[in-house]
Automatic annotation (TrEMBL):
The chain crosses the membrane at residues 58-81, 101-124, 130-149, 191-211, 223-244. GO terms for cellular component: membrane. It comes from Caenorhabditis briggsae. It comes from the Eukaryota. Coiled coil: none annotated. This is Protein CBG20813. Keywords: Membrane, Transmembrane, Transmembrane helix. GO terms for biological process: sensory perception of chemical stimulus. It is a multi-pass membrane protein. It is found in: Membrane. Its main location: membrane. InterPro entries: 7TM_GPCR_serpentine_rcpt_Sre (IPR004151). Belongs to the nematode receptor-like protein sre family.
Length: 301
């Protein structure tokens, strides 16, 4: 959620420029004031905003970097989650019982510094495109390997306890923590699916913009990129919350009870009208039941 507020601040800073209320002071060519500029990446200098650095608006510059930093934070999300699960596997006996605040502080600090470095490299275009892709893929590959290894280790602990319950070397707390870790991998799986879906949509849109496949749809593609940057963090956060059983069972509106009450309210008159028929049916069922048990009793005598 912190990245979403970061995007919100960046949007407030860039909104006057995007609406045309403010104009950039360092433009070489003022004919670009009404030109739709493409998001993401372009090798054509005509698609770029030519700005003299010392004359440019720093608010616009900072807002762009904040958007880039918030977007790049998603590339290290899986790595940070996998490291946290690795600590949960290492301190299997007392991870939930003993507080280790240094783990959270270290992960947040490392994540911030790493995201800042990656965002700066992307924003200033310090590397070629293939190296930039490798820079994004590397943390995710490491995160996948850590996730699979910790999942395998926790499954091993659980199977050991199930097969050799009386001779297991693991304590009750360790076995409980191992099962909790396995449940957390279901959450990670849902986060990966949601994140990969959003990333795939962003990559396809960026490629269409880069190759100029549909020039007339540039505004629509820009809108998709803006939506990706603004709502991806909310979708990931909602996915994490939905992965918890207690939150998933909470219903803001109980549509089932409303529908039942609606059906009952419509059938009140019908129920009163057929009440005699219903009593007749119950009497028939009682007689059939008595006959069945009488025949059963006679067969045993």
């Amino acid at each position: 959620m912190a990245q979403w507020f970061e995007l919100f601040v960046a949007k407030l800073m860039s909104w006057p420029y995007e609406t045309g209320y403010w104009t950039l002071k360092g433009l070489f060519n003022e004919t670009q004031l009404n030109v739709t500029l493409k998001q993401w990446y372009s090798r054509n200098q005509n698609d770029m905003i030519p700005i003299i650095l010392h004359q440019s608006d720093y608010i616009f510059f900072i807002s762009g970097f904040l958007k880039m930093h918030a977007s790049m934070s998603l590339t290290t999300l899986l790595l940070l989650i996998s490291i946290e699960r690795s600590f949960a596997c290492y301190y299997l006996n007392d991870y939930e019982k003993k507080s280790r605040i240094w783990i959270a502080v270290s992960l947040l600090s490392i994540g911030f510094v790493l995201n800042f470095i990656i965002a700066a490299i992307f924003y200033f275009n310090l590397l070629s495109m293939p190296l930039l892709i490798v820079l994004v893929l590397a943390p995710n590959i490491i995160g996948f390997n850590l996730i699979f290894y910790t999942r395998y280790w926790n499954q091993k602990v659980t199977k050991t306890h199930e097969k050799f319950a009386n001779h297991s070397n693991y304590t009750l707390a360790a076995r409980f923590q191992a099962k909790e870790n396995i449940k957390s991998f279901q959450m990670v799986q849902k986060v990966i699916i949601a994140g990969m879906g959003m990333v795939a949509l962003g990559i396809i849109t960026a490629i269409l913009l880069l190759w100029n496949t549909f020039p007339r749809l540039d505004n629509f593609f820009n809108l998709i990129i803006q939506g990706e940057m603004s709502f991806t963090h909310l979708i990931v956060s909602m996915t994490i919350i939905y992965s918890v059983d207690s939150f998933r069972k909470v219903r803001l509106v109980n549509w089932e009870s409303i529908w039942i009450k609606f059906k009952v309210s419509r059938r009140k008159v019908a129920i009163i009208a057929v009440r005699k028929d219903s009593t007749v049916k119950t009497d028939i069922i009682k007689k059939e039941t008595e006959t069945y048990f009488n025949q059963l009793a006679n067969s045993w005598t």
